[in-house]
Amino acid sequence: MKEKIFISYIIPCYNVQAYLLRCLENLTSQNIGGRSDIIEFILVNDGSTDDTLTILHDFANREERAIIIDQDNRGVSAARNAGLNVAKGEYVFFLDSDDWLTDDASQVLYDVYNKCVPDIIITNAYKIKEGALNVKGEWDPCMDLREGIYKPLEFAHSVHRLPFSFKAYKREMLMNHQVRFNEKLRVGEVYAFFLDAMTSSQSIAFTNKRIMNYLVRDSGVMRTVNIERDRTIIDTMHYIEENTKKRMPKLLLEASYKRSLFDIVYLFSFVNYVNKVAYTSEIGGFLGQVNKDTIFRDLRKYFIFKEKGFNARTKHSWLHSLFPVSISYRLLRFSHSR
Q1: For residue 213, which of 8, 15, 27, 18 has the smallest C-alpha distance?
Q2: Three-state SS letters, the chain
Q3: What distance lies between CA 124 and its chain's CA centroid?
Q4: Which of 9, 139, 306, 310 might form a disulfide with 127, Cβ 3.0–4.6 angstroms?
């Protein structure tokens, strides 16, 4: 009798022919104790117009563990949900098509599972800048957290900020609590999904081992400006706050939650724009919306009065509370240019 699938890697793909081969070729080395048949790869083509689908079919012809879903372009969240709908693994891991796993990724996850069978497994990764693939930076989202298993609130209390990526989720937990990617969100959807899963979980395991290579692309969502897209960060912020209040209200009081929500909103608003473009009235209108939002305002007050030490977060919070956006933006841009 065939053993159950342990892990399903779900990989959304949209016009990524330049990066896809590296991601796919690395998958072939995945095994657990020398076994490869308990791992599956779900490759979701989200309406690509380049050679992505051809590359996927060529790979599937050589790799019997690959499953291809071909759908019209509906966005990365819909692609991830489509993969989740057909996954058979005890755990699922969402991998972007421009990133790639380490050779021992599946074994690392299986070893953690064997110790404690957690609802969520969080790992470390390598960060690699596009154009400098031979230079690997170590990325530790949980910083100095000790390896082990935690209750969700215990985990939140133990980390400086909640991590955004590099997680395997127990599929049964996601199904039982109807945790899905919100297809209406255009930015911050990965973090929103994690919080929905975290607040539905009973246990979170952390290992400091690195299981993937995260490629920082110059054209990535977090490194480009797009006002129409980025203004939806307000929707993401409200979705996160409302869902967390329903699922685990005590999490709202944790400093790590406040730091993470503030950071992701601030990244898609002030940070990206200040670093890249001069002030315009259109930018000012968008950032004014963020600055006046009740949730963001409360977060800003928290860092002004509660955060210890004077860091970038507190400095920016003071500036935005004391001056109109048109002035605080120019002051920040001037300080960044020095």
Answers
A1: 27
A2: CCCCCCEEEEEEECCCHHHHHHHHHHHCCCCECCECCCEEEEEEEECCCCCHHHHHHHHHHHCCCEEEEEECCCCHHHHHHHHHHHCCCCEEEECCCCCEECCCHHHHHHHHHHHHCCCEEEEEEEEEECCCCCCCEEECCCCCCCCEEECHHHHHHHCCCCCCCCEEEEHHHHHHCCCCCCCCCCCCHHHHHHHHHHCCCCCEEEEEEEEEEEEECCCCHHHCCCHHHHCCHHHHHHHHHHHHHHHCHHHHHCHHHHHHHHHHHHHHHHHHHHHHCCCCHHHHHHHHHHHHCHHHHHHHHHHHHCCCCCCHHHHHHHHHHHCCHHHHHHHHHHHHHC
A3: 13
A4: 139
* Angle, helices 255-266/312-322, rounded to nearest 10 degrees: 70
Q: Tell me: the pLDDT tens digits for 180-192?
A: 999 999 999 999 9
Residues making up the chain, counted from first to last: 338
pLDDT at 279 over 60: yes
Encoded tokens for 282: 């259109």
* Owner of token pair 């990066």: 19
The pLDDT assigned to 1 comes to 40
State mean pLDDT over 22-43: 96
| The residue to which tokens 């076994």 are assigned | 35
39-46/7-13 β-pairing: parallel
Q: Backbone dihedral region of 188: left (phi > 0), alpha (psi from -120 to 50 degrees) or beta?
A: left
Contact 239, 192 (CB under 8 A): yes
Closest to 93 (Cα-Cα) out of 197, 11, 176: 11
Contact 225, 277 (CB under 8 A): yes
Cα–Cα distance, 154 to 275 (Å, whole number):
36
Tokens coding 72: 């019209």
Q: In whole angstroms, what is the distance from residue 54 CA to residue 201 CA? A: 38
